[in-house]
Amino acid sequence: MVPFSFAGHDLFALSEGALFWPERRALIVADLHFEKASWFAKGGQMLPPYDTLETLAAVAALVRRTAAAELWCLGDSFHDSAGCERLQPDARAALISLTAAVRWVWITGNHDAHLVDHCGGEIVEEALVDGLLLRHEAERDEVRPELSGHFHPKLRVKLRGRPVSRRCFVASSTKLILPAFGALTGGLDVTHPGIVRAVGRGAEALVPVSDRLLRFPIAA
């Protein structure tokens, strides 16, 4: 975990693509996209059906590692609003165990806006927590400090002549966009116009590596 400050709060960036907020003992993740493989299977595109279990195992490992008391999911936790209905019994049991172990809050996103069967936890559209606004998609004109997901940001650079792609955080003075945490998620380059519009000028891509945070300016 790599410490850094955002909007006056001490946070930790995890290489797995999550945030830890020690003051609240809160773990924050975005874009889990549970049951993405089963959604594609409905349309005839068969993918290995293990994405949900893999993502749940990664979340559970971080809960244990950080001793988190709260877990905030910043939207698109399911690939579609009916995804929870397709959970296999072992995945459902694992999820229910997690939502019972911590205060679990689902913030809805564009993929799961009508989430109902949530296997425990609270469902909200957004939340203001100790001065930080937690929502799914960054709003360009929002002046309050904001944590969000949605864009699945990735940094693509060349290292010794070879292309390297790493999921990353995107930060400005008032906005912090988390990478996608789900096992079966792609990514959007940090220079994409949608990301640049959302965060404005002066933003950086943040990549936690071992005990330090690599910072890469994003050209606006």
Automatic annotation (TrEMBL):
InterPro entries: Metallo-depent_PP-like, PdeM-like, Pesterase_MJ0037-like
Coiled-coil region(s): none
Source organism, top-level taxon: Bacteria
NCBIfam families documented for this protein: P_estr_lig_assc
PANTHER family noted in UniProt: BLR1149 PROTEIN
Protein name in UniProt: Phosphoesterase
The species this protein was found in: Sphingomonas turrisvirgatae
Organism placement in taxonomy: Bacteria, Pseudomonadati, Pseudomonadota, Alphaproteobacteria, Sphingomonadales
